[in-house]
Structure formats: C-alpha cells, structure tokens
Design a protein that fits this description.
By secondary structure, the protein is an alpha+beta fold. The protein has a single domain (10-66), classed as Dodecin subunit-like (2-Layer Sandwich). The protein is 19% helix and 55% strand. The chain has a three-stranded antiparallel β-sheet with strand order 1-3-2, with helices on one face. Strand 2 and strand 3 (53-66) form a beta hairpin. The mean pLDDT is 93.
C-alpha cells in the first residue's frame, strides 16, 4: 500500500427515517463537492423526541479523504 495523507472534516446528516439514512445523506452531499472520500467514522448520534417517539435522527460523522498526490 502506498503512503497517503488524509484530511478529515466533520459532517452532520439528518433524517426522519433512520441513523443509516442520516449518514447516507451527509455522505451523498459531501460526495458532490469532495473527491477521494475513503472512510468515515460515526462520532455521535442524537435523536429528537416528540410525543414519546423518535421524530428525527442526527448523525455526526468524521469523514476522511486522501489528499492528491
């Protein structure tokens, strides 16, 4: 494997459907303007509760991309 240098950013995705959908939302949007995304890590998960039920998911991600060679 070649040596690489990564930069990472933190993103927050949201969804009414699920944690996975919230993460996919953030990654899909980031992929529109970033290239070389190699990995991501879930840093935090939050949920908004309304009337005793989860109403909205919020997922904070650490997303890494390789710097151009």
């Amino acid at each position: 494997m070649t040596h690489r240098v990564y930069k990472y950013i933190e993103l927050t995705g949201t969804s009414n459907a699920s944690i996975e959908d919230a993460a996919q939302t953030a990654l899909a949007r980031a992929s529109q303007t970033m290239r070389g995304i190699d990995w991501m890590e879930v840093k935090d998960v939050r949920a908004r509760v309304e009337n005793g039920k989860i109403d909205h998911w919020q997922v904070m991600l650490k997303v890494a991309f390789a710097l151009d060679e």
